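thoughts on these C-alpha cells:
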Amino acid sequence: MLCAALTLTACSLDSNDGAAAEDRDRLPSTTTTTTTPEPLPRYAGFTSEVYSEPASWLCRPDTDDICDTGLDATVVEADGTLTEQPWVADPEAPVDCFYVYPTISRDPTQFSDRIASDSEEGFAALNQVARLGERCRVFAPIYRQRTLSGLVAALGSSSPATTGAPADGAPTTTAVPAEDGDGAPGFADVLDAWKQYMSTDNHGRGVVLIGHSQGAAMLNQLIQTEIDPNTDVRDRLVAAYLAGWAVAVPEGADVGGDFDQVPLCRTPDQLGCVVTWASFRSTAPPPPTSFFGRPRSRVGASACNTPAALDGGPGDAVSYFPSSPRASILSSLGSDTGSGTAWVDPAPEPITTPFVTTPGLVSVECVQRDGFGYQEVTVRGDPADPRVDDIGGDLTPEWGLHLQDVNLVMGNIVGLVASQSSAYLSQHG
C-alpha cells in the first residue's frame, strides 16, 4: 500500500515509554566470546540463492548503506528554541532489527524487482528503521513487493494518492489485492530472507521485527507461520512493531485471533509481544468505509497499543519528521501532503539537519470506538507560540494519517526497543 513514513526517528527526550540517552548506559555490556552460537536447528544449513548476497539487502550491519548516516535532528521547542540532536549508530548494539518496508516501488510492473532505489525503498528505510541503528543492528531485505502501479491496476484507480485506494491487505468493502495471492512473490522473498538471516546472521541474538502497511502484512504472516507456532523461534523475538495494519484479537483480549501465543505488549520490558496501531486525527475519526482500524476478516477487534502508551491512556508522541515541511513519500511521487509551513516563524536560524523532533506538539491514545480500534492523534498547536501548529500527511478520510504512522511515534519506538533490549539481555545473558 502506498503507505510510508514521513518521519525519521531518534531517541527523544520526553516520552512516556521513551528512553533518553542514558538508557544505553543501562544496557548490559556486550562481551566478546570465543564461540558463536549455532543457528536454531530448523534453520541450520539453510542457504538462500538470493539473500546470501549482500546486494539483496537494503540495509545490513556489514555494508555501507542508507541506514548508516543522515539522521541528525533539530529539536524544535514550543518557544522556538532550536537545538541540534546528533545521531550515532551503535555497532555493538545488543539485538537485531528485521525491517520490511511498505509499498513504495514505482516500477511499472505489478511486482517490483529486487533493485532498490534510495528515493523509494531507501527513503522508507531512512524514515522508518534507520534511527533504530542506535539500538539494534538493522537488516532490511529487498523484496518483490506489490508496486504502486500494481496496486492502482488491481483497484482500477488512476491514483491511490487522490482517490484513497486502500493498502494491500487493508480492511475495506472494496476488493483489495491479497498480500501473497495471485502469484505475488512478496512473502516468499521475506520468508527466504528471514531464513537466511536466522541461519547465518542471527547468532543467538534477540530480534525486533518492524514493518509498515504492506511490510507489516508480510511480518504478520511471518509471525503466524514461523514464530507463533515455534517456541524456539518465539524465544528470540524481542518484540514486533506492526504499524498501519490491523492485528486481529478477540474483543477485550491481548492474545488470540491472528496469533495464538504472541500477545500485545503492555509494559516496556515485556518480551515476545506485538505493538500495533493505525493513526487518525482526533478531529477526523475513521469513517464507516475506513481502510484501517478493523481486522481484514472483520472477526474480533483491531488491536491497538501505541508505542507512546502501551497500557492505554494518552501519551506524548516523540515524533521525527523530515526537516522540510513539505517532504513526504507522496511528495516524491509528485503529490504534496506537507503543511508547507516553516517549523518556526520567525525562525531564529535555518534548520540544517535532515529531521526535526517537536516535543509536546502531538499526543496519541489508542481508542476502540464505533467498531474501530486505532491510534487517535491530537495536535496541540498553540497560535501564540512561534512553533508550527499542525502537521501534514492527510490523504482522504479513509486513509487517516496512514503516511505518518511511524514518524509520529518513532522516538517512542526507539525508547521501547532500548527497554526491551535490556530486558532481553537480562533474561538471556
Notes: Residues 410-428 form the longest helix (19 residues).
